[in-house]
Design goal:
With about 500 residues, this protein is an all-alpha fold. Helix content is about 60%, strand content about 0%. The strands form 2 sheets. Strands 1-2 form a two-stranded parallel sheet. Helix 6 (about 155-175) crosses helix 9 (about 250-275), helix 17 crosses helix 19 and helix 20 (about 465-485) packs antiparallel against helix 21. It is globular, with a radius of gyration of 22 Å. Residues about 15-65 have low confidence and may be disordered.
Length: about 500
């Protein structure tokens, strides 16, 4: 049921994209910027392959990976997908094919250079620019092995608390409807102020961080899709800066994107709770327990519809396509969770892919979209760093969540503990335990369906001397990768606050 609902919402968003002013989104010269130094032009030359060669290389990589992990979840057929593209539409590649998923020690490696990640190692924005945190390692901070105090960096939540207030207040009105029960259900999480609104905070901080970055003009060939997508910036001086950003139309649209992301996220929680038959969420009763399954599903649908309308009003078809892809990824994650083969249930790469689809995709696509709304092109150093940050932060967040599922009590988590095992799912701690204790592998493959399976798995996990540590190290790996991506941006208070947020993600207890 949920997958079909998300697919309908994705179709609705696509229709909204047609209504948006396409002449602006991909028009030549849309990004007001100055040419970057030749060093960056040289680094960009890696992208100037013949399109067919890129396509062939990418297809070869994906085919090789798919043979190991099995087919990716498909929402739209390849034939239909091909028919929907033109020469200027974005050919988005999943972030796990752009950035590294596993540490080298576990067989991980950085994917080949293709459109979307060509400037992932570029330091052009930092040339000659001082940065007191240029070599920051999270392991140097208390709680992660060091003695430095993270509190010396700006508090991410306090920094944007006042800025987010108008958006937080208005979101309740944006989801209002003349149907009282539906309206109350849709507003439930927004009225109760459950959670820290982490995703809107990320978007708001990212908007300030990219405002401190001067847009790059990548190449003169404006016909290639990866050199497009930047919104036309209507501010004094023609370029967004830290001094003219707040209160501008760009700032408003980026704040609205934060609202959209939160609506999509909350809708996914409501639908997930119906599928999983969960009783609680964020320390309170789940929406379907307060009302009914039917009302909960309709409330989630309504939130997705409202998010779609607001997304179209951003007037950037590239951002519409990126965020619609994030919505499609949520569907893919649900399908992957339900339909993974027994062999895939044992694979760490498969687990991380599912985590990307269900958690990280919304964060990383929101981060890249924030950069585009700020006047940066899709393939720029800034936009690439934003997506890479969101990719790794999202995976670190999910892995930490999965660790807490075994180590925190339900009243601290705000949701049932051991929920994943109850659904027959294996996460990083159990997968590492299964590597150490082979007798767990049949249990994982059959999704803990036999009596005593869950207890046997838990006993092995708590007996293991390495499983939990390996899971924590995997979360740290992605957190450091997220920090490394941020460090490619010029230093600013907002960027440093995001660094602190990255630390918080893997040290939190709930």
């Amino acid at each position: 049921m949920t997958a079909s609902k998300y697919a309908s919402a994705a179709s609705f968003i696509a229709a909204m994209a047609i209504m948006a002013p396409t002449s602006q989104a991909f028009a030549p010269g849309q990004c007001i910027s100055r040419a970057i130094p030749s060093q960056s032009q040289n680094s960009l030359s890696r992208m100037n392959y013949v399109s067919e060669e890129i396509t062939t290389t990418t297809a070869s990589i994906n085919e090789s990976t798919n043979k190991e992990l099995g087919p990716k979840p498909v929402v739209v057929s390849a034939e239909s997908e091909a028919l929907s593209h033109s020469k200027t539409t974005m050919k988005l590649t999943p972030s796990f094919d752009l950035f590294q998923m596993l540490p080298e020690a576990e067989g991980g490696q950085a994917p080949n250079t293709i459109p979307g990640n060509a400037l992932r190692d570029s330091d052009i924005l930092k040339v000659g620019v001082p940065d007191t945190l240029w070599d920051m390692k999270l392991s140097d901070y208390k709680g992660l092995g060091g003695d430095k105090k993270i509190e010396k960096l700006p508090d991410p939540f306090k920094m944007v608390e006042k800025e987010l207030q108008p958006f937080s207040d208005s979101i309740k009105e944006l989801v209002s409807t003349d149907q009282p029960v539906l309206s109350m259900a849709a507003k439930h999480f927004f009225q109760k102020r459950h959670g820290k609104r982490t995703r809107p905070v990320i978007v708001q901080l990212m908007s300030k961080a990219v405002a401190a970055c001067e847009p790059e003009r990548l190449v003169e060939d404006r016909g290639r899709w990866e050199y497009s997508g930047a919104s036309i910036v209507d501010v004094d001086g023609g370029v967004v800066t830290s001094s003219n950003h707040q209160g501008s139309d760009v700032w408003r649209k980026q704040g609205q994107l934060g609202q959209i992301v939160e609506m999509i996220h909350v809708a996914s929680l409501i639908h997930d709770d119906v599928l999983d038959e969960a009783d609680t969420r964020r320390g309170g009763e789940a929406v379907h327990k307060l009302y009914s399954n039917k009302v909960a599903v309709l409330a989630g649908d309504y939130l997705l519809a409202r998010a779609s309308v607001l997304l179209a009003r951003l007037e950037n078809t590239a951002v519409v396509q990126i965020m619609a892809t994030a919505l499609e990824s949520l569907v893919a994650g649900e399908i992957m969770q339900l339909k993974s083969s027994p062999e895939e249930l044992l694979q760490m790469e498969s687990y991380l892919r599912k985590s990307y689809y269900k958690t990280a995709s919304l964060i990383c696509y929101a981060c890249r979209s924030t950069a585009l709304l700020g006047g940066h092109e899709y393939g720029s150093t800034v936009a690439t760093a934003c997506e890479e940050f969101g990719f790794h932060l999202g995976l670190a967040f999910q892995i930490q969540d999965d660790i807490l599922d075994f180590t925190a009590a339900a009243d601290v988590l705000g949701k049932p503990a051991l929920a994943d095992m109850s659904l027959g799912l294996s996460t990083a701690p159990i997968l590492y335990a299964a590597q150490e204790f082979p007798h767990l592998q049949p249990l994982v493959k059959r999704r803990f369906k036999k009596q005593g399976d869950k207890q046997t798995a838990l006993e092995a996990l708590y007996k293991s001397k390495t499983a939990m540590d390996k899971a924590k190290n995997l979360a740290k790996f992605h957190a450091q990768k997220a920090a490394d991506a941020l460090l490619r941006l010029p230093q600013s208070e907002a960027r440093d606050a995001l660094l602190r947020l990255t630390y918080v993600v893997i040290t939190r207890k709930k």
